[in-house]
Amino acid sequence: MRWYARELGYGDQVDFWGLCGLLHDVDFEQWPEEHCKKAPELLAEVSASPEMVHAICSHGYGICCDVEPEHEMEKVMFAVDELTGLIGAAARMRPSKSVMDMELSSLKKKFKDKKFAAGCSRDIIKDGAERLGWTLDEVLEKTILAMRSCEEQTAKELAELCE
Description:
Number of domains: 1
Oligomer: single chain
Radius of gyration: 16 Å
Low-confidence stretches: none
Shape: globular
Structural class: mainly alpha
Helix content: 55-70%
């Protein structure tokens, strides 16, 4: 999300976009049946702004809540939430286990294979791209680039956590 903020001209909101991305599933693990419904209560405990609560809840629009993505950041998060799961699964299948050498054509093949990462809704990804006014190729390619931008740092932090 931080990459998207910079890429789309919201450099002054990088931290906000990043926090929304980090917290978007704040209620999912403990209350999966109440995903995006329990989030406002949890976010109130840390005095999250109404904008943050709306953004976090809107990523579940049409799936588990009726909070519609309105702002560009919310539309990005809606589109890429499912997509990052698909890209992550595709990366784990690669010899490199990385997005660093992933090509758009390779991801498109995985996207078309409905059995691959079947839990990642292609319809939501397409709807997200449409809400943004982007082609499917654009959202796929931009998200690969976004994931490349933080793969090394994420891997390093994960390794430190596991020590």
